[in-house]
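Box 4.2: Ligand-aware structure prediction
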Amino acid sequence: MRLMTEIDLDRVLVLEQSLHATPWTRGNFCDALGSGYLCFVKQVDREIAGYAVLMPGVDEAELLNIGVAYEYQHQGLGRYMLEALLLAAREKKLSRVYLEVRASNFPAIALYQRAGFSQIGLRRGYYQIDTGREDALVMVRDNLAGSING
Ligand SMILES: CC(C)(COP(=O)(O)OP(=O)(O)OC[C@H]1O[C@@H](n2cnc3c(N)ncnc32)[C@H](O)[C@@H]1OP(=O)(O)O)[C@@H](O)C(=O)NCCC(=O)NCCS
């Protein structure tokens, strides 16, 4: 995994638009890069197969985005990137990572649970979707210090 740069954005945007109903724009990614968020890409051979964005705070961080190209899913890349993000957060002395996820996004919820996240809240109608609104689960991975191998 390596840090994302603006040069990566053409490919990242193709993936983002294929993976999300309400995708981030180029401006969203540029803002994240310019704001010092931890933005990573994961390459397989020479191709970007996945990406992730973590917003660091004072004592905690928020996972804002993570995606793996369809053709590379179910090969452990999502888990690999998430563990690398948690390690990066721990190295920055952050003690917990929050995220929000659509209540119907079972692959992502399973990924987060496998990485030690647990649900701490529910935001009713948080997401706008074609058919109306959808709830968000709020999840946290706590006690990062000393709890991750490596
Ligand atoms: C969520 C996502 C990043 C997972 O990436 P991935 O590389 O396929 O995940 P992994 O191969 O590392 O799988 C790790 C674990 O996640 C869970 N998981 C992944 N895909 C799953 C699926 N389709 N159904 C159920 N569980 C799934 C499993 O627990 C899996 O562990 P296992 O393989 O031991 O069973 C990927 O599906 C994706 O990009 N989805 C679209 C974007 C998105 O929804 N992002 C999250 C919200 S911002």
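In the box above, the bound molecule is coenzyme A. The mean pLDDT is 94.
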